[in-house]
Write a structure and sequence with these properties.
By secondary structure, the protein is of the alpha+beta class. It is built from 23 helices and 26 strands. The structure holds ligand ME8.
């Protein structure tokens, strides 16, 4: 029997670049919540997708020399794209919406028309400030130090004919919703919204654009495209079939039970979105939860800073479940958290390899060693339980209630903390019972040992059920190892001590969470990050040409000559300089020092014909005289400086003048 429906969403992501660990955090949290609700008996609809329109995408596509649709297709559907990432991360979304899907486009046109027809959208002139990266219009008063209040970047003046949504009309109702209900959580975000946006006065919102074309056209006024946030927010209802025929689930699933969103887009979800729904006369989502950011070195990750963390690299290196677990175990969902590879590896080693992994491997190994892999029937019961038997049993059988209370408040970290208290208690129970000592006299202590091992398996099983939403793949393996059948993997069974059959046959299997060598892993990750950083830099950078003229006579004074390399050596104590002995056609050797040791070995250059400017005043470097300068071509590749000595045909005699 279903406990009812549960509709949960992630934000739909901008496929303007590959997604990073921050996006993965939000999606993994939503997935854990969706899996928890399914496990506990709800009929879940879990929606995610991509938000594909807007000027930023149009610009990126132009830079890449492809159409906007080709650009987003590659990032969404292409190799290592958004869909691949969610498959890798074992995300169990029921639906994936792309705002370029035909049904969504039609539905947005109808929604826009509805808002227009009911008088809440009107035509006017937009004058204000525009932040291109955020695709947000701002009034002067909303700017912070003259810059975009969301991202802190420069804004530009903008003026265009546009449609406006009467957001101001809904200010009172939205304020009431925020202040007097638990629509928006955590509560701290309510004050932020009310103080920063509602109290200063909600202005009508500009909801169409004429300055670019990559958007959904307003069908009754060609030339206008729908503002990307109206298009994007509506995904939550169009994906259910609102104003379209592609799906028929609106009645069943709307209103959403919760929208999970990052803190910077709470404003759109808690002010604009409810106002739009009020205007449409549709029910409001039950809750918007604004989670914090994953920071790197205390700041936001961004491609332009070159500090994004690639979830592919981490999942492939440490395992999908370890990464999923780390994200939700480490950071309180409502606050910001500092990501670090050290913290990730530490969590894997302490919680997964040490606490959980050891509990499973020690227990299953002992069942194998002492009982040939099968506990004797009747081992579930013990006539006179010791205090630690009772404590473990009580802690484990009441765990589900504590876990549920935290999960219902989206406090993943606390829910996991409760589970790990039981895992730690179980490990202590091994030491308290010293099974290896009991095993010395199996005739006398065999039944007690069997009971102790049963209790350990049972505590592990309960924890396994509750960890399944976080680590579905590994918990399936854990259940196989401890011999839990389907009935012992259910939500109901997690509250019933003794659900594991006492003739279960546990098998020690592969190590679920191998320990990571911290130093080696960090070295490898740093190297991979360095490579990724380089790859993100422009492939070729060439210094801009000089804009200042040099007069002809001055230029002609420079004397460029062909020179032949007679000898070349490293300069002692310098890792930069090479010392050249050159035939310059005068009959007297010329010595030039050149800082090119990074690019050439001396032997490579012997006999080559190079170009030197020979009438520069002599200079001393590292105690040696340098009479002139060799000419090279320089540029950058992926941020790295490249240098090529100018070499000319060996047919050119030493001393030939270059002009
Ligand atoms: O905002 N830590 O898309 P988006 C945690 N298309 N969360 C992070 C993060 C980080 N370092 N970086 C990004 C959009 N996110 C819109 C949404 S919804 C109708 C439209 C989160 O791809 C961010 O907070 O820029 C946001 O919730 C989500 O990723 C999508 O960001």
């Amino acid at each position: 029997m279903s406990k009812g429906k549960f509709y949960i969403t992630t934000p739909i992501y901008y496929p303007s670049d590959k997604l990073h660990i921050g996006h993965t955090y939000c999606t993994v949290a939503t997935d854990a919540m969706a899996r928890y609700k399914r496990l506990s008996g709800y009929d879940v609809m879990f929606l995610t997708g991509t938000d594909e329109h807007g000027q930023k995408i149009e610009d990126k596509a132009r830079e890449a020399g492809v159409t906007p649709k080709q650009y987003v297709d590659d990032i969404v559907e292409g190799p290592r794209g958004v869909k691949d990432l969610w498959r890798l991360m074992n995300i169990s979304n029921d639906r994936f919406i792309r705002t370029t899907d035909d049904y969504h486009v039609t539905a947005i046109q109808r929604i826009f028309k509805k808002l227009h027809d009911n008088g809440d959208i009107y035509k006017g002139t937009y004058k204000g400030k525009y932040c291109k990266p955020c695709e947000s219009f701002w009034t002067e008063s909303q700017l912070v130090d003259g810059k975009c209040p969301d991202c802190g970047r420069e804004v530009t003046d903008a003026e265009e004919e546009a449609y406006f949504f009467r957001l101001s009309k809904y200010a009172g109702k939205v304020r009431d919703l925020l202040e007097n209900t638990d629509f928006l959580e955590p509560r701290s975000r309510v004050n932020e919204m009310v103080n920063n946006f509602i109290k200063p006065g909600l202005e009508d919102l500009c909801v169409s654009r004429t300055s670019f074309t990559w958007g959904i056209p307003v069908d009754f006024d060609p030339g206008h495209v729908v503002y990307v946030w109206v298009d994007a927010l509506s995904n939550y209802i169009t994906a259910l079939g609102f104003e379209n025929d592609a799906y028929d689930d609106y009645e069943k699933y709307w209103p959403a039970d919760v929208h999970f969103v990052g803190k910077e887009i709470v404003r759109f979800h808690s002010i604009i979105w409810p106002a739009m729904l009020m205007s449409l006369g549709e029910p409001l989502p039950k809750k918007v939860y604004g989670h914090g950011w994953l920071l790197l070195d205390g700041g936001k990750m961004s491609k332009s800073k070159g500090n994004v963390v690639d979830p592919y690299i981490l999942a492939e290196k440490f395992g999908v479940d370890a990464l999923r677990f780390f994200l939700l175990r480490t950071f309180p969902f409502g606050s910001d958290g500092n990501f670090s590879n050290e913290a990730l590896i530490n969590t894997i080693n302490v919680d997964l390899a040490n606490d959980l992994g050891n509990l499973v491997s020690r227990t299953t190994a002992m069942v194998g060693k002492y009982f040939g892999g099968k506990l004797p029937a009747g081992c579930r019961d013990w006539a006179q339980p010791a205090p630690f038997d009772t404590e473990l049993k009580e802690m484990a059988s009441s765990l589900r209630g504590r876990y549920e209370a935290e999960m219902e408040r989206f406090q993943f970290q606390n829910a996991l903390e409760e589970v790990f208290k039981v895992i730690q208690r179980a490990n202590k129970y091994i030491d308290e019972n010293a099974p290896w000592a009991l095993a010395k006299d199996m005739d006398q202590n065999g039944p007690r040992l069997a009971h102790v091992l049963y209790n350990l398996l049972e505590a592990t099983r309960i924890c396994g059920v509750l960890l399944t939403p976080f680590m579905p793949g590994s918990m399936a393996k854990l259940f196989d190892q401890i011999g839990a059948d389907e009935a012992a993997r259910t939500w109901d069974s997690a509250a019933v001590w003794g659900s594991l059959s006492d003739d279960a046959a546990p098998k020690k299997g592969e190590n679920l969470f191998p320990r990571i060598d911290m130093d080696a892993a960090i070295r490898e990750l740093d190297a991979a990050a360095e490579e990724a950083k380089k790859a993100a830099l422009p492939p070729i950078e060439i210094e801009p040409q000089a804009t200042e003229f040099v007069d002809f006579d001055t230029f002609c004074k420079s004397d460029f000559r062909a020179v032949k390399v007679k000898a070349c050596t490293h300069v002692k104590k310098s890792d930069k300089l090479l010392c050249f002995t050159l035939d310059d056609g005068t009959g007297t050797d010329r010595q030039i020092l050149s800082g090119i040791a990074k690019w050439y070995e001396p032997e490579q250059l012997i006999g080559k014909t190079l170009v030197a400017i020979v009438n520069l005043p002599p200079r001393k470097m590292m105690g040696l005289a340098s009479n002139g300068m060799l000419i090279s071509a320089v540029h950058r590749e992926h941020g790295e400086e490249k240098l090529n000595l100018l070499m000319v045909s060996d047919d050119i005699p030493a001393g030939a003048k270059m002009c």
